[in-house]
């Protein structure tokens, strides 16, 4: 017993010492990097920013030139890193991670002057620099439209370490934080649907969902009116400003695949016939025409919107089954436009509002 106890005690001591060494190393590296940024030579930092700006400026705009109705900034503005703070939590005081995708991680930060929360997207090393710059240009162009979170600028991350993150690009995108500010977490449409399964089915909840889908349809219709296609609409690329019961606003995120409709640079993805069923199961939000090599289009976004209605089981709940089936038509030209979808959802919202008023009136007697 004494030997076993001594072995267990020594293991716990070694584990504790490893944790302390790891914490001290991370804190030391973080503090040293931040200290270099704050107290380093301003000329070196200015030179780094100039190098990044010139590198961004040298990248061709490509399909952004095909649009006359949208002004895309060649070089989005740079923010000084000293005006931002990465928020931390946990035993190792790690940076607060909001979400992670294939090409980047999104951290929660705070703007020091106003104290407002921001989301900082750090692109992974595997991401091509041109793709990261293209995404920030689109964010800058759509910043004032209300379709995407407000874009504040780029930040130079060449002197920042991210603990156990293997590698990242030198630029990060700083955007408005959208989500629960109290709990400091993002609310995606996926998480909202998961939480709503515990809610009772009544007219009020149906109205909340109808209003949310109406807002999403309006944002997509506005994007299409600008001559853009989102091309990657799914439950985790849609974020809410609050819970469903609060009638939140909705924003689209992860605009890396946005392209101009009827552009020669629009995305194509041909898949050989024997693998198409595999791709359809893996990416069910995309229309069947995509795997046949046709270009992404506004009708592709309509199909994705219909799949969201189906996945959230809102077609029958909201009484828009015919609309959902129309959006999921196999032939793109048979699908409605997002403008027509907005009109149908507007009618349904008005009907549900009338039903709620009748229920409220009857409950008084």
UniProtKB/TrEMBL annotation:
ATP binds at residue 121. It comes from the Eukaryota. Signal peptide: none annotated. Residues 23-41 have a biased composition (Basic and acidic residues). Residues 1-41 are annotated as: Disordered. Transmembrane segments: none annotated. It holds the Pfam family Pkinase. This is High affinity nerve growth factor receptor. It comes from Lingula anatina. The gene is LOC106170570.
